[in-house]
Amino acid sequence: MIGIESSSGTKGGDPHGPPPPRERSAAGGNLLSFLLFSLAALLLVYLYVASERCVYFWDFSCFWDNASKLAAAFRRSFPAGMDLLLYTIRVQDYNFILTLPSSLVFLLLGESRPVFILSLTLLYAIPAAWLLHRLLARFTRELEGRIPFPGFLVTAVLLLLFPMFWAPILRGYPGIGGLVLALLVLGVYFRSPDTRIPLLSALAMGVLLGVLQLSRRFFSFWIVSFFLLAALDAGRSFLKTRPRTPRTFLATFGPLFVAGLAASAVVLGLAWDFVHRAATTDYGEIYSAYKKAGSLGDVLAEMIPPWFGLLGAALFLLSASILAFSRKYRRIVLFLTCQGILTALLHESVQGMRWSHLYLVLPTFLVPTGLLLFEVLSRLPSPKASRAFLGVLFLLGALTTGTYFVPALRPLHHILSPLVPSDPAYPLQRKDAEELGRLVSFLQEKLSKAPPSAKIYILSSSERFNEDTLREAGRSLGISFDYKDRILDLADVDRRDVFPDNLLEAEFVILAYPFQGSLSPGEQTVLLAPAFCFLYGIGIAQAYRPYPEIFRLERGLKVAVFRRQRPVKPAEILVLSQILKIFHPKRPFIYLPRAWRKKAAGSPK
Prior knowledge:
The protein is built from 26 helices and four strands. The protein is mainly alpha-helical.
């Protein structure tokens, strides 16, 4: 005990003096382990991305594109870059906060896909791993003296056991930046044994929470649950205080009030327009098509098998169940467990969980599991036993992460899939790149001879073919396509996108068949109905003529290109409107074009 107490600075010398030799040695070992971990992570991420051959689409390309736009603005001038950044914060759901670091890297190293993913790894994932280690070390510092290896190795193995820490990064999601902010918040909050946080720390926590809220809208669920749990934590602390006076009440709840004010000031000061729109928008209605679950059991069934596996779930449940009875760990374990459950339920009330949202619950899984691993390793009877147990954990982590990301291990994944995550994230591959290149070249030729006002509308919204397939073909596959700015935005989700008005502006229409959607057809009638018209040559399609060329993409997908021959007649638009009205008779914003809605609103009743 003397050695442990001395190393923690509570006895045996000046706590403000230089750290004891053993503590310096542990710090050096952790730093060396961290550096080796960082190099390995960067190398493996590069090899993964370099093995991909595909067209990145939707969210897989959105943030990459945002970083490129911001980098282009900064190339013009620093004020231009800042103006664009602040504009997106003010008005856009997908603002550029989390892509800012990548955009600065682009200025130095270019805008290739490997550079983008490596920038997310270097600037977000690696710092998140260190912050997770520091949060764990706050509770396990005295245990590191009992294990015969640097404590950071435990954190590294922990991140192998939970590959979903890495998967969203490899698909191009910068939400890991939100995890960095969340870990910083938790580090500040749990620095004190209760909620009596110093004023400056409370202000810092509030600013971090404000930036977290601005970074992505869905982090609001994490923030709401954080404040609710923190208020309960403060209430528990206040009830244990003697005497309970207004002064002690203010000392207990005041830091949360300060943090809330600071967070509100950041959000309202930088994004009032967005706050107003968010407050008046029914996101539950807009994203109802993305909801799959309802109860907590449904949420867990949706999350656990594909993303965490039975092994990850069992490690968390075992850790939370054991440590909840420990006086030392009870506060943080119960806090994070309840926060994870509440956050998932709040999120599910609006839309279903996707990869980009997993960072909302990762602290809940990682922190209790990491704390239990430290405890077990420190209690084994000998250094040899500790090393052996860490080796077993490393093997389990390598199998979990390897079968999740490496296609060559697919047979092993089939065997282990009840234990490891069942929905692997292998490098993206496209086997029809040559035929896709032929389609792009065909469109390049036709558009070069068309008027500058000629626009393209794509009637397809699946992972195999969508509007981003053409937008991103150039930089994803090295195919030349100079007209991606001619591609009109697609309306493909009924209650989010309403009537497909952009279709009425299209000179060229591209139809993929069989029907290509990404949700239930009943939620995508604004895509299904126009596709039906063009497939059978009725309604609006009568104003177009198909080219004879048919492009055959992978898995039996066929693509046809149509060109408008004359203006579309109102009677032809009415056919499309009537089809949409069958599915949404009480939603005129879905079945009526914008111009007709305005005319109906302006006519006397």
